[in-house]
Amino acid sequence: MKIHSFQHYSHDLGLAVHDAWITTKVKSALTLAEPTRRLNIHVKTHAGMVALSGRVNTHKQCEQAIGLARAVHGVTDIDASDLQTYMVSPGSFPEAPNAEESAEDLSRSSAKMDDK
Q: How far apart are CA 85 and CA 94, in angstroms?
């Protein structure tokens, strides 16, 4: 019974070390590549599957980040569903991702100020 427990523990430990190695390699690849160098992309790995999250400026940068992660030896799959692209409509002003007030709230508050 103890041998089985030790084997199970060592397998889990080996998997965790392998995942940490993959995470480090993917983060390094994203940091060293020019298109993704200044982007804040988070990387998590579980059983060889890499999850990318954060924000990128363009769809092309998203594809490049996925390609760089896929090129790392040991990566079995990529989940980039939490990797978001800033969406800015032509003629609008981009807002900070953590802005407390939306553009509608600001326009309503300025309209109330005009009424006074």
A: 12
